[in-house]
Structures are given as C-alpha cells and as structure tokens.
Specification:
The complex is a heterodimer of chains A (111) and B (114). Chain A is built from no helices and eleven strands. Chain A is an all-beta fold. In chain A, the strands form two sheets. In chain A, strands 2, 4, 5, 9, 10 and 11 form a six-stranded mixed beta sheet that branches. In chain A, strands 1-3-8-7-6 form a five-stranded antiparallel beta sheet, with no helix packed on it. Chain A starts with a strand and ends with a strand. Chain B has 114 residues and is mostly beta strands. In chain B, the strands form two sheets. In chain B, strands 2, 4, 5, 6, 9, 10 and 11 form a seven-stranded mixed beta sheet that branches. A four-stranded antiparallel beta sheet of chain B has the order 1-3-8-7, with no helix packed on it. The radius of gyration of chain B is 13 Å and the shape is globular.
Chain lengths: 111, 114
C-alpha cells in the first residue's frame, strides 16, 4: 500500500514556464514533507521541506504548498530552467525520522 | 563540510558472490539509511541505523544486512547475489534532532551482478 503517491511518472514543461509537481499521501499522521531532486546515477539532493503546521514554504524559485485536508502537496518551480530536468521525489515522515518516498516524477524542461 | 561519501563508486560481482558497500555520514550525523534504486524504479528503503543499532528494515530478504560502526559509518552487505540485485545503492545520513527529518544522500554505489 503506497502511502505517498506521485501519480505523474513524467512531466514536460517549456523553459521559463511554471513546473508543478504533485504528490498525494494517505497517512494523516505525516507531519513533515520533503522534496528531493535526483539526476541519473547520483544521490538525491534535498530541495525544500514543509512541516504540517504550515501551508506554504518558499525558497527562491521553489515553493511547496501543503493542503492537509486534501492530503496533497505540490512543488512549484518558477521559472523552469534546463538544469531543473531531473527526477523529483516527494517524501513524508511521521516524526519517527523514517521517510516514506513517492515513486518520483521525471521533469523534462524543453528549451 | 564534507558530504556523505560512499565507496566504491562501482562494483561488479557475479551471481552467488557477496558485496560490501560502505558509507561515511556527514560529521555529526548519527543516523544512516540505505536505499536501493533499481533501474526505472523509485527509492526502496533497505535499512536504518542509529547509534550503532538497526532501527528498521525494509521489505528485503535477510541476505541484505549491515551494521553501523562507533564512528557512525556503515556497511551494507549483500550475500548470495542475484541478478536483480543490480541497482544503485544510496546511503543517506541525518542529524539526530527533533526539528528535522532531512536526509542527505551520498553519490551512491552502482552494483552490477553478472
């Protein structure tokens, strides 16, 4: 049973436009959410996180939105750049320090 | 500050052999996590060590095992290798803190089983 779901295996966005990556979860006890970016053959890189007491967190071009009632979070990248092409994973935890991971979404930025 | 390091970068073994992968966490981090990423798949949680003890393991057979040393570095051992064990093995570390669950990843070890 997947507790964290990224339903879009891939997403293609024009350079300069907004990229929106989505993640849904089923466990209402999750209280911390993270986004990671991963290039092929490399380890994931932490991007941005949000705790359940917030509904938005922003860091430069990256903004994460959390909708607890819908059990949904999203990552917005504005503007999208070619270097943003990667696989993006969302992850969630229940204050027990073990992350539950989504399957990832491959983001392709078209020039 | 040095990041998480893993060795070797690449490892080629044959079926039935054993593989040992190593991980050094970020200084000050006490928790180490191991993940497997097979081709085209997401991150599969393998093992979690903290303060030298195994805290949890994922849905993998017992031939996947490991340990954490007093300096918080860790080893992952895979016995009786099978072809489907070919994957990128990632290690992550985390600082012991109630305010963060962020894990920081190493570059991974690419294991190929022939």
């Amino acid at each position: 049973d997947q507790q964290v779901k990224q339903n879009s295996p891939s997403l293609s966005v024009q350079e300069g436009r907004i990229s929106i990556l989505n993640c849904d979860y089923t466990n209402s006890m999750f209280d911390y959410f993270l986004w990671y970016k991963k290039y092929p053959a490399e380890g994931p890189t932490f991007l941005i996180s949000i705790s359940s007491i917030k509904d938005k967190n922003e860091d430069g071009r990256f903004t994460v939105f959390l909708n607890k009632s819908a059990k949904h979070l999203s990552l917005h990248i504005v503007p999208s750049q070619p270097g943003d092409s990667a696989v993006y994973f969302c992850a969630a935890s229940e204050s027990n320090y073990q992350l539950i991971w989504g399957a990832g979404t491959k983001l392709i930025i078209k020039p | 500050e040095a990041g998480v390091t893993q060795s070797p970068t690449h490892l080629i073994k044959t079926r039935g052999q054993q593989a040992t992968l190593r991980c050094s966490p970020i200084s000050g981090h006490t928790s180490v996590y191991w993940y497997q990423q097979a081709l085209g798949l997401g991150l599969q949680f393998l093992l979690w060590y903290d303060e030298g003890e195994e805290r949890n393991r994922g849905n993998f057979p017992p031939r996947f095992s490991g340990r954490q040393f007093p300096n918080y570095s860790s080893e992952l051992n895979v016995n009786a290798l099978e072809l489907e064990d070919s994957a990128l093995y990632l290690c992550a570390s985390r600082m012991e803190s109630p305010s963060t669950d962020t894990q920081y990843f190493g570059p991974g070890t690419r294991l190929t089983v022939l």
